[in-house]
């Protein structure tokens, strides 16, 4: 796949998982062609990977080229004169549209764009019907007719789509900034309010529905409910499921060359609660003594990330909190947040806050303060409008307390370190119990362990690995692999399938390996399963143009006799030897 739009995540392979969400939205986008997809808001706490999903969706749709045109725009958190903002919004759309139609990704680079250039390239690419739209916008821009330009800008995707009998998906990130960052005057003194409300009818378009998101989720939801009632469906984005979090840990470990053990990999996924931001920050951490192969090393890295000003996690959250607190403008705000953090396991009523914190303010004022905190996503609303709770994010909680608890109460940050130790002890016990329960001595992460085996020095372990693998061709040797990872042809491709292991030989003369891993306790690998694997094996060989590739199945509980015979007949190597799961 070609990644037309540069993703903020960095190298495309750093994007992990989000399978359920991508499948949902690709289906939703496909539904646009049947005019059945309603504008939707992707909602989640901060840093959960909303932007990553939107950018990946853009690239998949662009690449698929299957009747829906993607438009992605991020509204910046900087004050802008409405005229400049509308110009940027309009031209970004036009350039992305032309890039899609002409299949020329260079038009996605929107650094130097202007109306006359847009007309020029629209004509050059044979898209003359755009010229009228661009001229109209250009005219309104020159006349400084702010309202007309907004109307034209907002309506352009919908109008072009319906006129051309096409479909467009409009992905607008940081949508809430429409409300506070756009000004009617050049000096940015008078807010251009109600511009979001302009979407009342635009958001109903079935030709060009919206998919919006934003980093201030409480605020965004509030704005959608207030200004655009019943125009949007909500799609909540959650933490990554366990298998995707594992995949991310192993992928980042490989990519950033930061080794982990099975145990620390497990602990990382658990302490990060499946947050891609936390996992990524732990692996990217600048902590000098970073060592993720021991629990102590992991704990120290996390402490650094949470408590040290150089930590990515602390830095990110502090930036956020510092921009939120002045908005709330209340000396008691920190005390309230702190109180809720400390009682994170339950909801707290406004009355309790009044009594415990001896707040000297009428209940209606307190309600407004709390509403502002909820809007900023620093605390959460409870079951009723009278109940509140701290956000259920154990790392955010520690960052906040690390900074403010000392200011407010006698408090030693060492307490937080102790809490991490306690959490790791509990998690360690849980991990050991899991191992016992499922007899997962080794193998909870079997496919990753095997991938690691192949990636690091498989050529040096050639004789050993050969001795524990059956049915290898006589000229076979384990060699060096230029990449070894799971293979995922999903969901951006129409024929989606996953393969546990794909190790591409560095030297095309050597065998590449395509493998399946099963770590069941009892049930043996069956002939039918070998058949299923063969289909995927052949597909991958064809997709990747592999001349020399060997199929390999690892099954911890072994193989049925029938399956073994079948592997021999089809030239598939196989093994149940635990040696594959040992560290090399
Ligand atoms: N699917 C993913 N695979 C790998 N890393 C991810 C993924 N999603 C998010 N990340 C990591 O988490 C970080 C935050 O992601 P992103 O900026 O997309 O979140 P967001 O929800 O848009 O945040 P904000 O609320 O600030 O807008 C990214 O920089 C990246 O390191
Ligand atoms: Mg974002």
Compile the SSE list and pairings.
Layout: H1 19-32, E1 40-43, H2 50-64, E2 68-74, E3 80-81, H3 82-102, H4 115-124, H5 129-142, H6 146-164, E4 167-173, E5 182-183, H7 199-202, E6 210-213, H8 217-227, E7 233-236, H9 242-255, H10 262-271, H11 276-284, H12 295-307, H13 312-328, H14 333-342, E8 348-349, H15 350-357, H16 363-375, E9 379-381, E10 387-390, H17 394-408, H18 414-438, H19 446-455, H20 462-467, E11 481-488, E12 498-505, E13 512-518, H21 527-543, E14 549-555, H22 561-570, E15 573-575
Parallel strand pairs: 1-6, 1-7, 2-4, 3-5, 4-6, 13-14, 14-15
Antiparallel strand pairs: 8-10, 9-10, 11-12, 12-13
The structure holds adenosine-5'-triphosphate (ATP) and magnesium ion (MG).
Describe the structure.
The longest helix is centred in the last third of the chain and has 25 residues, at 414-438. The protein has 22 helices and 15 strands. The mean pLDDT is 87. With 584 residues, it is an alpha/beta fold. It has 4 domains: 12-236, Rossmann fold; 242-306 and 415-438; 314-392, Winged helix-like DNA-binding domain superfamily/Winged helix DNA-binding domain (Arc Repressor Mutant, subunit A, Orthogonal Bundle), CATH 1.10.10; 446-581, Trna Endonuclease, Chain: A, domain 1 (3-Layer(aba) Sandwich). It has helices at residues 19-32, 50-64, 82-102, 115-124, 129-142, 146-164, 199-202, 217-227, 242-255, 262-271, 276-284, 295-307, 312-328, 333-342, 350-357, 363-375, 394-408, 414-438, 446-455, 462-467, 527-543, 561-570; strands at 40-43, 68-74, 80-81, 167-173, 182-183, 210-213, 233-236, 348-349, 379-381, 387-390, 481-488, 498-505, 512-518, 549-555, 573-575. Bound molecules: adenosine-5'-triphosphate and magnesium ion (MG). Residues 50-51, 173, 215 line the site of magnesium ion (MG).
